Amino acid sequence: MRDLPPLSALRAFEAAARHLSFKNAADELAVTPTAISHQVRQLEEWLGLRLFERHIRRVVLTKEGAELFPSLREGFDTMVRGVEALRTPSAQELLTLSSTVAFTSKWLVPRVPAFRAACPGLDLRLHASDETVDLRAGGVDLAIRYGRGAHAGLRSELLFQDRFAPVCSPRLGVRGREDLGHHPLIHFEWHHVEDATPTWNRWFASAGGRYRAPNGELRFSDESHAIQAAVAGQGIALVSLVLVAEELASGALVQPFGPELEGFAYHLVYPDTPRHAERLGPLRQWLLAEAKVLEARASGVRRPARTRKPGTSRRR
């Protein structure tokens, strides 16, 4: 038997964490904000942990809440896909796109409605895994991979170059590098480390200094958890600017200073055969177009000036 808290409490927490708002979660679930608050409190009591810091007109995930949210979001997304597959069996062509867990959740999932509008004749299945899939074995039609772009026997097209920089919540009031010593540094632990891996050690070397973390460190094995911790104001994170493009555009995160570190690039990879090229044409063109939109948006995101208050403004 699975020992789980009430599903209604898990659902209320997932919606509130996704919106960072009890009111917006209540609107989505067609209940009152008081009901959302009650369900979240029930879950906190069941776990014996605080999941949100409650402030006037806003809520912020705690460290424990940020750790719980991604797994619940993925679980509910999986249930929705399973139910929809049974309710509305489709005769449309189904294409499966594979990428890393972080890239799927941070970049692909928010763009699914745009894909459906642009490609109404196609159904898309997202396969999220940090393991490299065999595209020749079937089951997966194409992949977005992070690296140097060389894949024997496969077609590889550049989507965009990745860059890494320190980011944080504007609530921290970080203005310059001198503020690094006042906040914890958030790390994403890379599975494979090489000279080009964008780590804090490499960033400090690029900035002309030596690594130091006098106010502590937070380490995460999942990139999306590190990003969520930064949004929650738990420290300064060195993360992919591709994966936080939406947060930077909305003002949930700011990039207060440089330098930026160049990472590898994201490539669209698929079998190099005429049959695949024809089947994948609409999805491929949509992905390339979305990549151009991202690059244009990223170039328009400005860092807050040091003389002003901060405001809203892959490996594998």
From TrEMBL:
The lineage of its organism: Bacteria, Pseudomonadati, Myxococcota, Myxococcia, Myxococcales. Gene3D superfamilies: Periplasmic binding protein-like II, Winged helix-like DNA-binding domain superfamily/Winged helix DNA-binding domain. Keywords: DNA-binding, Transcription, Transcription regulation. Pfam families: HTH_1 (PF00126), LysR_substrate (PF03466). NCBIfam families: PRK11139.1 (NF008352). PROSITE patterns: HTH_LYSR. This is Transcriptional regulator GcvA. It comes from the Bacteria. One of its GO terms (molecular function) is sequence-specific DNA binding. It comes from Myxococcus llanfairpwllgwyngyllgogerychwyrndrobwllllantysiliogogogochensis. GO terms for biological process: DNA-templated transcription. Belongs to the LysR transcriptional regulatory family. PANTHER family: GLYCINE CLEAVAGE SYSTEM TRANSCRIPTIONAL ACTIVATOR, HTH-TYPE TRANSCRIPTIONAL REGULATOR. Residues 5-62 form the HTH lysR-type domain.
